[in-house]
Amino acid sequence: MTCQEAIALLVDHLEATLDDEQRARLERHLAGCAPCVAYLRTYRRTRDVVAAEGRAEMPEEMKARLRAFLLEEMRKSAPG
Amino acid sequence: MGDDQVVLDRLRAGDPSALETLITKYATRVYRLAFGICRNAADAEEVVQDVFLAVFRKHETFEGRAAVGSWIYRITANTALNKRRGKRRELETSLEATLEASLPTYRPDGHREGERAFLCTDWSSTPEHELLSGETRDVLRRAIDGLPAHYRAVLVLRDIEELTNEEAAAILGESVASVKSRLHRARMALREQLTRHAARMA
Questions:
Q1: Which range is most confident: A76-80, B5-9, B90-94?
Q2: Nearest C-alpha in A relative to B48
Q3: What is the ipTM of this complex?
Q4: H helix runs in chain B, sequence order
Q5: Angle, CA of B169, B171 and B174, to the nearest 5°
């Protein structure tokens, strides 16, 4: 397996959806390829850090404006 | 899904507490996806208002076949991507080219090109608080800002909201193969920027 083939498997590898043969081939490649080991580790960490960076709550004042906006819409569309 | 249908029915009956339930359950998810695509709080807020207005006005056309959550995500992705498209169509093309330049390159034998020390740069044990503060956070944010919007949509749905490839594909109206390909390219591009930064700091 080449580095190119190994890196192409990383989405499935992180999801543990590789079949046994693919996983065994990837593991054999990683056992002899330090750059791909570094690539895999930093790729996985990139996924985790992107998730942590993006996991913000919607600001409370924005929720309050949304609530007021929608209640007004509801009032406007109420029959009578 | 059943609970959501009940909430939509209450909304239909003009019950204000149904709005509160929807806001509590979905506002943050809608905001994250909108912000993830727009990368700007003011635009994201407009998208959130438009999405909830659409839910409020169009809930009668919602056919209970899909989960309410997917339906709301779909409206959000469309609204946010349309907002971006209006603003920066040409930019998206040049962003694709920039992304391309952040992908790994290979020698004819399929092994990676580049200096071994750089290829072995491993910043993966850096603590999260360090990665998410100071210069590294700025590098990450700029790298995310630099992705084409439809790559960011995939990144948010998969890596932040932790949906499956199939769910993300259904929401974005794309094939699963296209979702996986964008996810992979987006992660590789961000990884590259973080690695170049780590190598500069070493």
A1: B5-9
A2: A66
A3: 0.93
A4: 2-12, 16-38, 41-58, 68-100, 116-119, 128-131, 134-145, 149-155, 165-172, 176-201
A5: 35
Give the whole-angstrom CA distance, residue A69 versus residue A62. 10
More confident residue, B96 or A25: A25
How many contacts (CB atoms, under 8 Å) link A and B?
Answer: 142
Reply yes or no on whether the pLDDT at B1 is more than 50: no
Q: Which residue of B has its CA nearest to A8?
A: B184
Distance between CA atoms of A37 and B196, rounded to whole angstroms?
Answer: 17
A11 touches chain B (CB under 8 A): yes
Q: What is the DSSP-derived secondary structure letter of residue B110?
A: S
C-alpha dihedral sign at A16, A22, A27, A29:
negative
CA distance B162 to B156: 8
User: Residues A62, B45: contact at Cβ < 8 Å?
Assistant: yes
Mean pLDDT, residues B46-73: 83
The amino acid occupying position B57 is R
Mutate which: A30, A48, A66, A67, vs B, most B CBs within 10 A: A66
